[in-house]
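lol ok so funny story. i was supposed to be doing the assay writeup but got distracted and ended up predicting the structure for this chain instead. priorities right. anyway since i did it might as well share w the group, maybe its usefull for someone
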Amino acid sequence: MVTRIIIARHGNTFTKDQTPLRVGAGTDLPLVETERGTNIGKYLKMSTLIPVAVFAAPLKRTTETARLAIAALDKDIPLIADSRFTEIDYGPDEAKTEDEVIARIGQEAMDAWNANAIVPQGWNVSVDGIIQAWKDFAHEVEQNYLGKTVLVVSSNGIIRFAPYLTGDFDEFCRNFNIKVGTGSVCVLEKDEGDEFWSVKEWGTKPKDKLIDKATSLSSASSAVNH
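and the output, tada:
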């Protein structure tokens, strides 16, 4: 019996003509587009990965993304606010550009954050607390949704710690890019009786998969008609 946790990063909070800022728990921006949230739902529906519950951080960007995904799934799925998935606090780098952040912490510190989730000096982050939150949540999922699928909508700073559920975070970092793009999807599974979770997908871009599917169907239709 397989229990599944799907993790999705929220959609975009900046338009293409805006300079992206590092926004954390202290900046509650709404989405500037609906495509990514909708595509999350479409992709899960296409892949028959239908969640029985959706958990989202209580911020506009995560809640709106979750609602768009649920609407695209076209199912009556409860949306549950969970503050454990609220983005981290970037401290003095909140609402700063990437160049400004690097100017303060240095490129080496930024690379360590992106590669191994090593928190730069000054950010208000409890790594142990985030890891424990993921472990507690995973345990709750096993207790309450055994053999089922749930969806979590969160942010990049929180999602990168989810692979601690695999039991070997360092090995995961050697094989995957822990930085997940906006609107991207990760899938973790656990067989009943297993000690750790396994990663089946990481950083999947729903739009690409939907385009691939549409292209495949179009090609199959053309082949039949000829």
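Helices lie at 35-46, 60-73, 98-105, 107-116, 127-144, 156-159, 169-175, 206-225. The mean pLDDT is 95.
back to the writeup now i swear
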